[in-house]
Amino acid sequence: MTSARPAPHALRRLAGAAGAILIGAGLTAAIAAPASAEAGVGYVRLAHLSPDTPPVDVYVDDLGGKTKGIKLDAVPYGVVSDYLSMKPGTYAVSMRKVGADAKSPPVLTEEVKVTEGSAHTVAGTGRFADLGLSVIDDDISAPPADQAKVRVLQASVKAPVLDIKTTGGQEIGAGLKFATTSNYRDVKPGNWTIDMTPQGGSATKASCKLAGGTTYSLFVLDGKDGLTTDLKVDAKAGEITPVGGVETGAGGSTSGTSIALIAGLSLVVLAALVGVGAFGLRRRARRTW
User: Fold this and answer.
1) Alpha carbon 194 to chain centroid, angstroms
2) Has residue 8 got a pLDDT over 70?
3) Between the CA atoms of 64, 67, 68 and 71, what dihedral angle is there, to the nearest 10 degrees?
4) How far apart are the C-alpha atoms of 207 and 194, rounded to whole Å?
5) Which of 15, 30, 151, 176 has a CA-to-CA distance to 200 between 20 and 30 Å?
6) Cα separation of 31 and 28, whole Å?
7) Cα gap 186→170, rounded to integer Å
8) Which phi and psi angles does 171 have, rounded to 5°?
9) Considering only CA atoms, which of 116, 136, 115 is closest in space to residue 184?
10) Strand order of the sheet with strand 204-210?
11) CB neighbour class for 264 (10 Å; exposed up to 12, middle 13-18, buried from 19)
């Protein structure tokens, strides 16, 4: 019995279909790489929340020596990184003067234990004279689709105690002191105006849009002309979207978006070849400044 061989036009159609599928997969991977695809990792983001502390170089090093460290250069007050995806283990987060030798004693250092599915914000907090590194536990679970979840990280020394409410009167943080973090609160999604009222002062208003099924952290910061805010997404629909890892060397981390883009473009190239051939709060300071 002879086996049937596909006709040339059938092969071309098959190659075209395979190419289309791979191109679609490639573009999907390039556009979105949800964290749910990253099994066996935890997440850490870094923040400089000390208003009178100058910019610092920030290092993250694996104390187990299994992965290479990263370095963020000259991080100023108010900057909050995206999440970094990290393998489970114990890491040292350190701050040094800008331009200091990487082997010199750090100004501050703190350990953070990363477990699978955990998320933490590691921040330089307090005034310069009492500077510390805080490890803040983040909630990356998703609220229901008809709810949003938000908390406040109070990093304003100009307004050392704040009451924070929506214009409709829903409390987000009451009597929130400088260098402290509120609990997460469930709120209705939508476009909100937030009133931030210092003790004995008038309210500063900030606008924010909160989407259903999404968890947020609202950073309250000192601006040039009063208070300012930075709203960060902790998780959306139960997924977290980190942008980098700790395996890329001490010159900085490779963006997770770039990793996804590279993977996606690789699939696109493969598709083309087919057509042609047929990604609790603790403070402890160790000062050497």
Assistant:
1) 23
2) no
3) -80
4) 6
5) 151
6) 5
7) 10
8) -75, 135
9) 136
10) 171-177, 161-166, 190-198, 204-210
11) buried
DSSP string, 169-215: S-EEEEEEETTEEPPPEEE--EEEEEEEEETTSPPEEEEEEE-TTEE
Among 84-93, 157-166, 238-247, 280-289, whose mean pLDDT is lowest?
280-289
Report how far residue 91's alpha carbon sits from residue 99's, in angstroms, rounded to the nearest whole number.
Answer: 22
State the SS3 of 83-127.
CEEECCEEEEEEEEECCCCCCCCCCEEEEEEECCCCEEEEEEECC
Helix/strand/coil for 201: coil
Are 33-140+253-289 and 142-239 in the same CATH fold? yes
Give the chain's radius of gyration (CA, Å).
23
Top CATH class of 33-140+253-289 equals: mainly beta
| Percent over 70 (pLDDT), the chain | 70
Bridge partners (DSSP) of residue 56 are 75, 97
What crossing angle do the helices spanning 8-31 and 256-277 adopt, rounded to 10°?
170
**Would you kindly state where each structural domain of the chain is located, as residue ranges?**
33-140+253-289, 142-239
Report the 10 Å Cβ neighbour count for 63. Answer: 12
Which structure tokens are listed for 204? 């500063």
- What is the CATH topology of the domain spanning 142-239? Immunoglobulin-like (2.60.40)
